[in-house]
Every structure is written in structure tokens, then in C-alpha cells.
Design goal:
47% helix, five-stranded antiparallel sheet, 12 helices, 10 strands
Length: 333
């Protein structure tokens, strides 16, 4: 057998067409006038919400509604698509009602022939949200116990300190093992949005009612002790272990104040915040987290929180920090 006999047979045009049709990403091939020569199954599926019952024979009318920037690049001369091999990318929404999004990449593969590749951005967003959830496991698994240990230390309870330090170390090793099994992923960028109205600010005197939302039993207990001490003499009227419970209890109890943890199972605090502001508009919401990152803080404030408190110094700073927020004083004052 010669070396040439071991070479695979070259792909035929039929092989290439079958490969394009079966690709998991959408592929559309058209000429410079938008007449479609090839649409694979993935492209038909991804564009179906925008097409309805229409057939995809002419690409340009579809693009005029779906992605005006790409349409202008191909037709109106507003932007040049570029030379052969130059790719331009565009984002489009195929269904506002169902929040479906695609990315369109257009490339001139040869004179007179254009190929549009379609990626499912909805799936990508779901994957990024899954990654975000995985990363916030660090807060739940490790930092929560470290915060509880530090607070217990300030209260002189050494047995609780040892318990939480050991739990944090075990959870940290497990979490690190999971992270090493995955590729690092860049965090999703938050869309630009108009800030929501800030939470109203009650007086904060004795008898102020408080709902505590935190998935850590120990931290809920510590928060209750700190808040019901005299002073300040506040009243804890509810406890929630996740964002969904926080929404339900805030609507039912209408407390003066909600202390809302950022990282919780089922629904995190940032996701629950808009619903709490909607269902209990007179309630002041203050976010608490062991991660006082500036981006996280800004997201909370933009979503309508009255303030953001760092968990790592609860025993010394919790009540003074809440009182400063309720007085409307700037952070750090």
C-alpha cells in the first residue's frame, strides 16, 4: 500500500452540503442580491420565531426586520461588509416575548457569495448564568462559614469558631476541586439599564420590623441577635432561606426593612430584589454579602436597594451601617 492509498478520499460537493446541513450552528448561503441557496436545519430552527410561516427564499426582507445593521451592510451601503474572508458580527432578537436572541456572523466567502452563520445567544446566556451560579457557590460553601466564624469569635464562642473554620476548610477544598474541572469563563456583562427607584427609608427606631433573608441558619441567628438587642430594639418578623421565600414573606408581612443576602439557592438576592420592591414598595431593602465588589454593589443600587453591607464585620458594623443607610448618609461617612 502506498502513502497515497492511505489518504482519505476528497470531499465531494454532496459531502460538503450534507456537512453544512447537519451542523449544529445555523448556516445560510446567499448571493449578493439576497437570494438564498442553502439553509441548514439549525438556521431554520433559530430563525423560526422571527419567520413565522414565511419561507426563507429572499434573505434581505428578513434581515430588514430582524437585523437592520446587517441589512444595511449588505444592501444600503451604510457599512461595508468587507473583503473576502472578513467577518462582521451582529446581534438580533428573534422573539421579544420569549427572550430569544441570536448572533449573526456574515462573511463574503467569494465574489458574489455570502455566508451567514447563526449562533444561539439564548443558550450562551443560559450557560453564562450557570457559570455565575457555580461561582457564587464559593460564597455559600466557604465564605458564609468564615463570616460566621469571625462573628462567633467577636462574641467569644470558641466552639462555634472551630466548627465554622473546619466546615469552611472542607467546603473550600471541595469547591476548588470542582473549579479545576472546568475551564475559566469570563463573567457575563450586565446590560445597561435605568436605575430603579431606591427603597424608602424608615426611621429605624425601636419596634422597626425586619425580614432576614439568608441561606445560612447560623448567620440568620446572629443577625436576629444583633438586631433585637437593645439598642436598637428592632423586631424580626420573618426569616427566609432563599430569594423566592423573601419575595413571598415581604409581600405578606410588609416589614419596614429587609436584609437580603446576595447569594442564596433557588433565587439569589439580586434576582429577588425587583420583585420585593414591586410587591412591598414601602419596605426598605438592604443587600448584604461577603463579597463587597463594586460591580455587585452597583447592580444592587441600580436595582433599587437602599444600601449594601459587607458581612465580614457584622458584630461591629451591622447596626451602625443600617442606621447610616436609613438616615440617607453616604457610604463611608
Amino acid at each position: 500500500m502506498t502513502a497515497d492509498d492511505r489518504l482519505p478520499a476528497p470531499l465531494t460537493d454532496e459531502d460538503l452540503l450534507q456537512f453544512l446541513y447537519l451542523m449544529p450552528v445555523g448556516v445560510i448561503q446567499c448571493d449578493e442580491d439576497g437570494r438564498v441557496g442553502l439553509v441548514n436545519a439549525a438556521a431554520a430552527r433559530l430563525l423560526a420565531p422571527a419567520l413565522g410561516d414565511a419561507d426563507l427564499h429572499d434573505l434581505y426582507p428578513v434581515l430588514a426586520d430582524l437585523c437592520p445593521d446587517l441589512y444595511a451592510s449588505l444592501v444600503d451601503g451604510g457599512h461595508e461588509l468587507g473583503p473576502i474572508g472578513m467577518t462582521r458580527r451582529f446581534l438580533a432578537t428573534t422573539s421579544v416575548e420569549h427572550d430569544l436572541h441570536v448572533e449573526l456572523s456574515a462573511v463574503r466567502v467569494q465574489p458574489g457569495l455570502i455566508m451567514v452563520v447563526i449562533l444561539d445567544r439564548t443558550l450562551e446566556r443560559q450557560l453564562m448564568e450557570h457559570e455565575r451560579t457555580q461561582l457564587t457557590d464559593l460564597d455559600t460553601a466557604v465564605v458564609q462559614d468564615l463570616v460566621a466564624a469571625e462573628t462567633a469569635l467577636s462574641m467569644g464562642d470558641m466552639d462555634m469558631v472551630r466548627l465554622h473554620v473546619m466546615r469552611s476548610a472542607d467546603a473550600g477544598r471541595a469547591w476548588l476541586g470542582r473549579q479545576l474541572e472546568r475551564l475559566d469563563r469570563e463573567p457575563a456583562q450586565s446590560p445597561t439599564a435605568q436605575p430603579a427607584p431606591r427603597s424608602p427609608q424608615p426611621a429605624g427606631g425601636p419596634g422597626t420590623t425586619v425580614l432576614i433573608a439568608d441561606d445560612s441558619h447560623e448567620l440568620r441567628t446572629i443577625l436576629e441577635i444583633l438586631l433585637t438587642d437593645d439598642p436598637p430594639g428592632w423586631v424580626v418578623t420573618g426569616m427566609a432561606v432563599n430569594g423566592q421565600e423573601a419575595i413571598e414573606q415581604a409581600a405578606a408581612l410588609s416589614p419596614d426593612l429587609v436584609l437580603l443576602d446576595v447569594s442564596m439557592p433557588v433565587m439569589d438576592g439580586l434576582s429577588a430584589l425587583p420583585a420585593i420592591r414591586r410587591d412591598a414598595p414601602q419596605t426598605t431593602v438592604i443587600m448584604v454579602s461577603a463579597f463587597p465588589a463594586s460591580q455587585l454593589r452597583q447592580q444592587a443600587m441600580d436595582a433599587g436597594a437602599a444600601g449594601f453591607i459587607d458581612k465580614t464585620r457584622l458584630a461591629e458594623d451591622l447596626v451602625p451601617a443600617i442606621e447610616r443607610i436609613l438616615r440617607g448618609e453616604p457610604e463611608g461617612s
